[in-house]
Specification:
alpha+beta; Ribosomal Protein S5, domain 2; Alpha-Beta Plaits; six-stranded mixed beta sheet; 11 helices; 21% strand; globular; binds adenosine-5'-diphosphate; binds magnesium ion
């Protein structure tokens, strides 16, 4: 990460009024449950976006050390007016204004060590850092619980990317040493103890670096199948199918693919609840089998894994992981493995070796420490 205060000084010729940070995230468990009104359990990463910012007399100017040039706009205009990476910034200004807030004109300089497009939600980190900065600079009275939906609206409507509420909730609401249990229907959250380090554990994240294949189309197809199944079953969302009613529900569906999609969502929601129960009583190692079962469900029933992530999961388990699973929307992205901390290097090396044998692009491993959500520095 660059020294963003000095970038700010070079760019705008003054000291920034402050620095605001917001992290990337990984989802410990609960995949494709968000748009089914279900449960997710993300935690924030130490990797984060930092925004240096000051109030300005009019308009917004923004630069990022990951992008060439700076972008300025007098008004965000209608969704789609500002394009490219700065759309994520304009989307926040737009969402705040549309919700009736008096958004302060501002200058912003952005730096980040959240990898882009790696499945750890750099977009939500960028949005959340900018949102937090603008709220503080403008003295806006917006409770933390209402902030994720504003950032999500910026991304969904202004940028035009259909995402659930998880990423922004994680970036804004997570706490260090905890995972965020989020009910995507009510948007209620509970902080769940997840202090892996004091247990001698680590979460190894491995970016598979697999080329993303047909992600948007497959995501849309999964979403459509879930919505259709919910209609057939006469429920508002698949979240409303209780685990005990799953067998009955499956009998009422005549399409085998749809049955498997439903089984994934219903069992995955239950796995989130079971993971939360275990973590509440400090039984961290015991969540391993739930993680591995989640992966099997994504591979067999939801069919969203690819060879690269399957190999990483199998190799991590063979290297002694308590559990391992793909995290994120699928068709590539990252794998999580819960391991003894001292096994992190050996596990990462085993996965790298397996990738080489299979002729895959080398993976990028890192150890994820559950970290603090958006904050003023
Ligand atoms: P992900 O959120 O999984 O990392 P996305 O495609 O949703 O991937 O978001 C990545 C996009 O967000 C980038 O292409 C860029 O437009 C924008 N972005 C994220 N972080 C930054 C940053 N630090 N500076 C500029 N743009 C960024
Ligand atoms: Mg994103």
């Amino acid at each position: 990460m660059s020294d963003v205060a000095s970038t700010f000084r070079d760019q705008y010729g003054a000291e920034p009024e402050g620095l605001w940070a917001a992290p990337g995230r990984v989802n410990l468990i609960g995949e494709h449950t968000d748009y089914n009104d279900g449960f997710v359990l993300p935690f924030a990463l130490p990797e984060r976006v930092v925004a240096a910012a000051s109030r300005a007399s009019s308009g917004w100017r923004v630069c990022s050390d990951l992008q060439d040039g700076s972008v300025s706009f007098d008004s965000p205009g209608e969704p789609g007016t500002v394009t490219g990476w700065a759309a994520y910034v304009a989307g926040i200004v737009w969402a705040l204004a549309e919700a009736g807030h008096d958004v302060p004109p501002a200058d912003l300089a952005i730096t980040s060590d959240v990898p882009l497009g790696a499945g750890v939600s750099s977009s939500a980190a960028l949005e959340s850092a900018v949102l937090t900065a603008l709220i503080d600079l403008g003295g806006l009275d917006i409770p933390v619980a209402e902030r994720p939906a504003l950032a999500q609206r910026g991304e969904n409507v202004y940028v035009g990317a259909p995402t659930g509420i998880m990423d922004q909730s994680a970036s804004i609401r997570c706490e260090a040493g905890r995972a965020l249990f989020l009910d995507c229907r009510s948007q209620e959250v509970e902080q769940i103890p997840f202090d892996v380090a004091t247990e001698g554990l680590a979460v190894l994240v491995v970016n598979s670096n697999a080329p993303h294949r047909h992600v948007d189309g497959e995501y849309g197809a999964r979403r459509k199948a879930c919505e259709e199944a919910a209609r057939t079953l006469g429920v508002a969302a698949l979240r409303d199918v209780a685990t005990d009613d799953l067998e009955d529900a499956l009998k009422r569906l005549d399409d085998d693919v749809m049955r498997r999609r439903v089984r994934h969502v219903v069992t995955e929601n239950q796995r989130v609840l079971d993971t939360v129960s275990l973590l509440r009583s400090g039984r961290i190692r015991e969540i391993g089998p739930l993680m591995t079962a989640s992966h099997a469900s994504m591979r067999e029933d939801f069919e969203i894994t690819v060879a690269e992530v399957d190999v990483a999961v199998e190799t991590a388990l063979m290297a002694g992981a308590y559990g391992a699973r793909m995290t994120g929307g699928g068709f590539g992205g990252c794998v999580l493995a819960l391991i003894d901390a001292e096994r992190a290097d050996a596990t990462a090396a085993a996965i790298a070796e397996a990738y080489e044998k299979n002729g895959f692009t080398a993976p990028t491993p890192f150890v994820a420490v559950p970290s603090q959500g958006a904050t003023r520095l």
